[in-house]
Amino acid sequence: MQESQTTTSIPTTTAKKYVYTFGDGQAEGHAQLKNLLGGKGANLAEMSRIGLPVPPGFTVTTEVCTLYNQKGVEVGFAAIREEVEQGVATLETIMGTRFGDPGNPLLISVRSGARASMPGMMDTVLNLGLNDEVVEGLSRKTGDPRFAWDSYRRLVQMYGDVVMGLKAEKEEEDPFEIIIDAVKVERGIKDDRDLDVADLQMIVARFRTLILEKTGQAFPDDPWTQLWQAIFAVFESWNNSRAELYRKLNQIPAEWGTAVNVQAMVYGNLGNNSATGVAFTRNAATGEDLFHGEFLVNAQGEDVVAGIRTPQEVTLEGSRRWAKLTNVSEAERASKYPSLEEVMPAVFKELLIYETHLENHYRDMQDIEFTVQEGKLWILQTRNGKRTGAAMVKIAMDMLQQGMIDEETALLRVEPNRINELLHPVFNPAALARAQVIVRGLPASPGAASGQIVFFADDAEVQAAAGKATILVRQETSPEDLRGMNLAQGILTTKGGMTSHAAIVARGMGKCCVSGAGEVLVDYKKRSLSVGDVTLREGDWISLNGSTGEVYAGKIETSEAGLNEALDNLLTLADRHARLLVRANADTGEDAQAARVFGAQGIGLARTEHMFFHGDQILAVREMILADDTAGRVKALDKILPMQRKELEGLFAAMHDLPVTIRLLDPPLHEFLPHEVGNQQEMADILGVSLQEVQQKVMSLSEANPMLGHRGCRLGITFPEITAVQTRAILEAALNQKRRGIVVFPEIMVPLIGRSREFIQQEAIIRKTAEAVFADYGERLPYHVGTMIEVPRAALTADLIAAHAEFFSFGTNDLTQMTFGFSRDDIGHFLPVYLKEKIIDADPFTTIDENGVGRLVRDAVKKGRRVRPDIPLGACGEHGGDPVSIDFFHRAGLSYVSCSPFRVPIARLAAAQANIRNK
Amino acid sequence: MQESQTTTSIPTTTAKKYVYTFGDGQAEGHAQLKNLLGGKGANLAEMSRIGLPVPPGFTVTTEVCTLYNQKGVEVGFAAIREEVEQGVATLETIMGTRFGDPGNPLLISVRSGARASMPGMMDTVLNLGLNDEVVEGLSRKTGDPRFAWDSYRRLVQMYGDVVMGLKAEKEEEDPFEIIIDAVKVERGIKDDRDLDVADLQMIVARFRTLILEKTGQAFPDDPWTQLWQAIFAVFESWNNSRAELYRKLNQIPAEWGTAVNVQAMVYGNLGNNSATGVAFTRNAATGEDLFHGEFLVNAQGEDVVAGIRTPQEVTLEGSRRWAKLTNVSEAERASKYPSLEEVMPAVFKELLIYETHLENHYRDMQDIEFTVQEGKLWILQTRNGKRTGAAMVKIAMDMLQQGMIDEETALLRVEPNRINELLHPVFNPAALARAQVIVRGLPASPGAASGQIVFFADDAEVQAAAGKATILVRQETSPEDLRGMNLAQGILTTKGGMTSHAAIVARGMGKCCVSGAGEVLVDYKKRSLSVGDVTLREGDWISLNGSTGEVYAGKIETSEAGLNEALDNLLTLADRHARLLVRANADTGEDAQAARVFGAQGIGLARTEHMFFHGDQILAVREMILADDTAGRVKALDKILPMQRKELEGLFAAMHDLPVTIRLLDPPLHEFLPHEVGNQQEMADILGVSLQEVQQKVMSLSEANPMLGHRGCRLGITFPEITAVQTRAILEAALNQKRRGIVVFPEIMVPLIGRSREFIQQEAIIRKTAEAVFADYGERLPYHVGTMIEVPRAALTADLIAAHAEFFSFGTNDLTQMTFGFSRDDIGHFLPVYLKEKIIDADPFTTIDENGVGRLVRDAVKKGRRVRPDIPLGACGEHGGDPVSIDFFHRAGLSYVSCSPFRVPIARLAAAQANIRNK
Predict the structure, then answer these.
(1) Identified catalytic residue from B292, B424, B501, B610
(2) Cα–Cα distances in Å, from A812 out to A272, A499, B814?
(3) Closest Cα to residue A470, out of A671, A480, A481, A478?
(4) Rounded distance, CA A273 to CA A420, Å?
(5) I want to staple A595 with a disulfide (CB 3.0 to 4.6 A). Which of A1, A233, A600, A880 is the partner?
(6) d(CA A895, CA A807)
(7) Shortest CA gap A704–chain B (Å)
(8) Catalytic residue, candidates A65, A512, A713, A876
(9) Chain B contact for A621, CB < 8 A?
């Protein structure tokens, strides 16, 4: 009684619509029905609905998947049987062919299509409808028996693989590939393309035998059995273990289900009135507003990709341009490589209509796949075209000007990271074609560079003085290498990740860097590197692509890139739409000037320790570290003071009228000490102590986990004189520049605060020193004292800290290290596996982890604002230049981000996008 | 108009009472008025109120401090003038002396007394009322001119120092001490006590000149001026910069203010009917219920401390015991060292009444300071007496039995940490007296140990085999040293803190350890250590006190300690009152058995990697690590499996009927690798590879920050075969023991989880392996899979993790490291300064940081319970054995704590106390 009264949530077969057809310029579905039709199904319906001639088909809805998996195959079958049969009948009508008719066969594809793309599920079965009889009919109809039998071979293989479950875990155990390899060996053939009709027939026969033996069931000759089993296999695959694990990891509900797309197949290889090709509504390389494309007569899509035949241009204009570039005469072009416009003018005309229609519909540059089957044009797919960074910028600004899109859309059209391509040198494409990739590392800092190998930073200096271009190759870099890094063309390291010392410094300098090329073995003694069989020595040429991580042996010419007008306009537009300000991380006057050119609105992070490596500062710094007592440290600090002051004057000058945040000494002191005996002896001589004493001090300062050791404000607390002298340098520099008429806003930042008491103690020293400086100068100036929030404990107790700190700057590098417990220098041992196994979606040092680290940031923002409502909040970790992270920082309510100068344009655009997206 | 209508919050002088008198067995205040009278004032009032003859006095309330500092000296003075004058008159009446009367002078002390003790404030001025005239009167009255002039000297010095502001920042710059030193030089004297009356007179004169020159004001001869200035100085000192900084650091509101205590001074050195002494209501060493004490006739309190004269016993019984122990004849005793009972029978009788009264009033053993001035007994102070751990336990259980206190009070009376003294060996006191402390390190693991020095763990093994007692001395220990550590009597390290490897392992073994003795230089090559001028070589005897951190040259006899009956009763009582269960961290069957003896209710943490060092496992482990591929690792793991299984069988056997939590491999693999060439060569031979290959592998596994590197579940994720084999070992061991009739509850714990996906992946491997094991055995058993919460990100996302994990165990060591960004191996560089400067109150690795780390724990508890309401929650870091942290864990709602076996009794008591305290 009870049961029969409840309204069942699973629809019965009578009323419900389970199949949505499309084709012939019409569709029952549309783009908004993604939940019901899956992504692929909704897209096919939309293309058909706007009048494109897509090959006809129908989509079995995701609801059927749920029905099938809950109620079983019989209920599922009953629910859709009529609609599917009706759907196939419609295909037959539109295509003028018949499913299973050897004389005029309709071939069909079946594809899964969930709401979100989901690996592990059954994907695709092509050429359904073929059997021993139909294949002969297809052979006769196309006059191409090899094509017919290869299509059949593929059907049996895919069907056996995904429908009948003969998928092997490892590629080398795939039973079908084992058969193909065996036949190739028997026939003495190396390339699949050399298999002839007889070979293919033998392979098909062996495939069928394999299936029967392994599964106890024969490959079905009946096309309808093929179709139904393929549909059911898609539903089954929704619940296989790989798909389940993926759903669990990605929190996709099992109830979503998957749709099934059934579509007629079309062929561009049915004779000379058939063709296949691809076209673009604008130029994907330059952005130029010019329709163009490539095609091949009597060919399949894969022939275009395979590159055996030279593709022809779609437009006559494009064809003539191509001929000119490749030195082909007009006569030869017209006879051997005519354009589609020439050989199929009607088809071309139709295509022109669609390309205009498509660009106007999608309001973006389209990449269109088409096939001409016996004179009839089919549009297989259209999508927003991939393009270079330069094209991205130009197309967006052109379309804005053409009134096709509004400002916000134009800004959203450009992927911020792709702006990199406009800011850094690139390899000359012709030269690149001849170059050999010897290894691939991490794309740590974009751009292209070529130079002669040096293994020591000092050598880079020597070679630079001699006017030579060098690439500095190190296992890893340290602050000692800074000068050499600055003088080299590029940096290659074998250890360390995207946020290693080398990577961060290189990005700051706008210098090309490939890091973590683990396969490269560096032998410092022999001054050589080896990777596989290749050995390169000091002085040999090597080239790096910091945007891709590729490393080449030899010299490759590069061409410089610079800001262009379209980009300038785009960024000016971006600033108008952004709420977040963008500052730069800069440690020198030159950096700061570069940052200003790129549009930085202040310095968010000046690392005083980076200045330590300029000139002779490092000697005084080492003297300070090696001192045994306060007096010794003060003596050394007195030497450092005027040098720091001078550096800071340069920063203030470049940032006239803008704020400059200066961080007090942060890294472990060990990083500044000499690690080579020569340098150690030099220090011993300067200090008048024995080499052994210097070595002992170096040893005593080494730490098990320096990242969690004696650094940041812990230095200023144990050695208060460091804080005092640095404060003095900052405020004297500021006052000196103020006297020269420069408007300065110094912000003194205490690093690595974890407790409010640490800040209170450091602030007391800073304020006391400031008063002393102001007394010396007889003049005051406003300044702020704030802190980094980079230790989890600081985020957790941000309210207590904000009671004293006048600003926060989130140091998300360290915050990520400590929140995850990931040392950024050591993640190379496991991060690749994490990414591969999808345990993590992105390197958390590149893109901020919103659920964990982000939670701390939000918490700290809330607590900080509660105590000090108008507290300025910034972010100055590497994430400050990452567009995804910038979106988060915008949502978290920060005031500004700070990044390396060369990422400022990227951040400006990302800040605008964040504001637009989150309105 | 407006102003006059508002009711002012600062009271006017008319109605308000500002001064509270005490003395003569009466008091206007009492113990509950701490906010008004300060801690000291409230206590003096209470003692007087219960009838003790405390020297009379009065307290000026904290409200006056606020009034003074807000309205100024005139208002303050006017407010209390009458009451203070009245108060002094009362003192004169009670004491029978007069303030400023040279013939019969009343001397007065002024002391500050805030609600909380606060460094940086003016503290004490004694002997107020003396001047050039009165000092002569005092001299005549006491017949002791030296005493009179020394009292005067002290007054001028203290007054000049704290009232007139001549305090020097550094001790060596103290102008008064400089004068004293000068006089000593002039007079050729070394000891202050050799200064005679003339010297003291000269010093007083120079002090007065100094004050006049430096301050422009003379030292006031008028006693009333002295008194008023001293009172005002206390109020002024509330706002000095040191006190302000302290308040800021400790969040003490400025409005609290401080009280001022003005009290008559009494003297025990006014002739043979005067005396001074100290008495205890019970024995502080053993807890025996016997009144006793010591005194000196015609002496001041400091004479008792100085130890120049032999103090006499208070009771006759005590005196006779003392004579027997020290071989003094009864005749000599009675003549030279008679008891107070004998020499001042009336005073003794009165004292007896007070001691009984005091113990009954405070219901605890009392430590009473008394002075007899010319036949009149004054009680200066009474407080709960300090006592040994053994006395603590005995007194608490005795008083419970005597009906003086209830069970909860008895449990709260014992400081859990002091139980240590009952569990570990102690030095024989007589032998200790002759020993020389050469250095002091950290008290890393309690107990006393003596042995011959070895510098290498292997040598400890060799010596142990020869029956020799050794102390292992290392810069730091590593897992390689485990076997040797177990065989040594004690461990001394020069690096590392309270939670270094050596410290943790030693505590787990219940073995004495002193860590971080930084002044000791170890020379492994020469096999010697040096500290200052002392050099000790291999084979020399050395002794360690792990409870104090003291290190002695030479051999010192130790006596064993064991559980006693009173402690047993206390702990049984504790279990009845506790809610938190106590488990043990144990890695071997022996550890587990010990833990059970100490009352552990299961194993909360078994570290599988510790088993790696037993027998030949380490070779197989190294083989696994050095393997190049999965196959190689599996081969080595197959050797490890039976060894781990056997170890685990021992654990399960010891914990019959109780849960055993086993953690999968956690530390960085690098820790297991051979670091010495000999061991490296051995591995090379076993693996059949070159030494160089082994060395390269060792190098490639080294990490910049191993604590944040490739460890924990990151190992199981990159090498899933490790997880699988460890799971197999655990469940096979459990099934084997189950077949033997042992009831097992295995809990498999995945370490270092930071994301739920990590756990999902590891759990899948564990479940799959479990099914395979159950299939092999044809038998199942229940088991749980859970995780450590030790990465901040895990705490932040505990809800996501709890959806999969069946239990949480907080690993607060790592959680503290990452939340603070403190490497526990490296904090030695800055923690001492942090503690000294009060930037941190306690080592966060010893006592959990409730505001930061605790917030993460609470957050994770809340989130975990929301998703899985009955999730078992434990804590297995070092904090699991720390009473303060246990109190927090109780409040945070955990189910159990787990600590090293020897701390289980401490934790059981602490758990009971936590429950009682937080009821």
Answers:
(1) B501
(2) 61, 11, 20
(3) A481
(4) 44
(5) A600
(6) 10
(7) 6
(8) A876
(9) no
Torsion of CA A809, A810, A811, A815, to 10 degrees: 150
Name every chain B residue with its beta carbon within 8 A of the beta carbon of A717: 830, 833-834, 837, 839
Residue whose pair of structure tokens reads 């870099």 in the numeric block: A477
Quickly state the pLDDT bin for B725 (edges 50, 70, 90).
Answer: very high
> By three-state DSSP, how is residue B268 classified?
coil
Give CA–CA dist B709/B717, Å, rounded: 13
Distance, CA of B837 to CA of B661 (rounded, Å)? 40
pLDDT band at A505 (very low <50, low <70, confident <90, very high): confident
Q: Pairing relation of β-strands B26-27 and B436-440?
A: unpaired
Question: Distance (Å) from the C-alpha of residue B845 to the closest C-alpha of chain A?
Answer: 14
**Does A792 touch chain B if contact means CB atoms closer than 8 Å?**
yes
Judge whether B795 and B746 are in contact, CB under 8 Å.
no
CB B698 within 8 A of CB B668: no
CA distances from B520 to A708, A742, B61, B117 (A): 25, 55, 52, 36
- In chain A, the residue whose alpha carbon lies closest to the alpha carbon of B836 is A718
Q: Which of B547, B552, B542 is nearest to B443 (CA)?
A: B547
Q: What is the DSSP letter of A480?
A: G
Q: Answer whether B826 sits within 8 Å of A705, measured CB to CB.
A: yes
Task: Output the CA–CA distances (angstroms, integers) from residue B356 to B279, B385, B869, in the order listed.
Answer: 12, 14, 53
| Mean pLDDT taken over chain B | 91
The whole-number average pLDDT for the span A431-435 is 77
Using the structure block, give the residue that is written with the tokens 């002193």: B514
> How far is A745 from A738, CA to CA, in rounded Å?
10
Note the pLDDT tens digit of each residue in A658-690.
Answer: 999 999 999 998 888 888 888 889 888 888 889
What distance in Å separates the CA atoms of residue A234 and residue B116, rounded to the nearest whole number? Answer: 74
Choose among A791, A796, A849: nearest Cβ to B856.
Answer: A796
* A856/B contact by beta carbon, under 8 A: yes
CB A647 within 8 A of CB A613: no
> Which residues have a Cβ under 8 Å from the Cβ of A601 and sit 6 or more positions away?
A581, A582, A583, A658, A896
Give catalytic status of residue B876 as yes or no.
yes
CA torsion sign, A848 to A853 to A858 to A864? Answer: negative
Q: Which residue has the tokens 């025990």?
A: B268
Looking at CA atoms only, how far is residue B904 from chain A in angstroms? 30
In chain A, the largest separation of any two C-alpha atoms, in whole Å, equals 102
Question: What's the one-letter identity of residue A208?
Answer: R
**Does residue A625 sit at the B interface (CB-CB below 8 Å)?**
no
Q: Which residues of B touch A792 (CB under 8 A)?
A: 792, 818-821, 852, 856
Per the CB < 8 Å rule, is B704 touching A820? no
What confidence tens digit (pLDDT) does each residue in B210-249 have? 999 999 999 999 999 999 999 999 999 898 878 887 887 7
| Least confident piece of the model among A300-309, A845-854, B890-899 | A300-309
**Does B710 sit within 8 Å of A705, measured CB to CB?**
no
For the whole model, what pTM was predicted? Answer: 0.80
For residue B6, the model assigns a pLDDT of 42
Query: Measured between CB atoms, which of A708, A760, A851 is closest to B823?
Result: A708
Joined together, the tokens standing for residue B344 give: 């001042």
Cα–Cα distance between A595 and A907 in angstroms, integer?
12
Query: CA of B520 to nearest chain A CA: how many angstroms apart?
Result: 13
Q: Do A792 and B761 touch (CB under 8 A)?
A: no
The C-alpha atoms of residue A802 and residue A808 are separated, in whole angstroms, by 8
Contact residues on chain A for B249, CB-CB shorter than 8 A: 757, 760-761
φ and ψ at B684, to 5 degrees? -60, -45
A853 touches chain B (CB under 8 A): yes
Q: Where are the alpha helices (DSSP H) in B96-196?
A: 132-142, 145-158, 175-187
Q: Tell me, yes or no, if B30 is annotated catalytic.
A: no
Q: For chain A, first and last CA: distance in Å?
A: 53
